[in-house]
Amino acid sequence: MTDSDLRSNPENFCYRHPDRQSFVLCQRCLRTICPECQTPLPVGVICPECLADQQKQQKAQHATVTRMPRGRATGRGGRPLVTYALVIVTSVSFLITLIPGFGDVVWSWLAFRGDLAYTQPWRLVTVTLVHAGIWHVALNMLALWALGRSLEPLLGRWRFLTLYLLSALGGSVLTAILAPTTVVVGASGAVWGLLGAMFVIGRHLGANVTAIAVILGLNLVITFLPGSSIAWQAHIGGGLVGALIGVIFARTRKSSQQRAQVWLLIAVAAGLLALLAVPLALYYA
Prior knowledge:
With 285 residues, the protein is mainly alpha-helical. The strands form 2 sheets. It has a two-stranded antiparallel sheet. Strands 3-4 form a two-stranded antiparallel ribbon. Strand 1 and strand 2 form a beta hairpin. The protein starts with a helix and ends with a helix. About 3% of the residues have low confidence.
């Protein structure tokens, strides 16, 4: 091919500057581009139009990534709003019980006693709202705050709230079975449920759960110390239910298993309520 042929071939000139001869092609569209129109890449060069398209695609991908946490704020991820709400509501409820006269009435209507579970079932859960003293509520709320900040973003708000309430229910049910005349107050059963669930989920994810195991062990020792007034039935019941729910969450993480997860949680709640018939059966046996 002669020099004349090269000069007469329009493909040998920049598509944006027809008067400039070049033999460099855009890596994406393969059009001829002069040095002024070339943007170097790790391999080859790119023309201005392909560069604009590439930047537009990158911006769209970046926008999608930055919007994801906002979309997940009502489920997994985001701030642990349920944890904060539980801490605030429980703390305010405790302060109300300190009001002379009125507080005693509120305390008596929210505290749990096994033989009242059948006629006043709200006590199965409202037991978490009353405490025996400032140190009791402070330690429980500190544990709830610490555990909730890790578990709620992992599980999502509704799952976390379900775990908390079912664990409280589990503690009340075991108390009703083993110590039906014992008056129980506090959110310890629900907190033990969070500990149990975190231990199981952590093991399933391959995380180091040594610290959680140590905390559970120390709490068990404190619970069964001679002369202790702690309602161990609520602790054990809440912990067992929390561990069971942890297994459910760990085994039904796929989106296709969400319906099964809901039904399993309903089954746990129904099973706990059914266990309340055990004390009655023993009494009338």
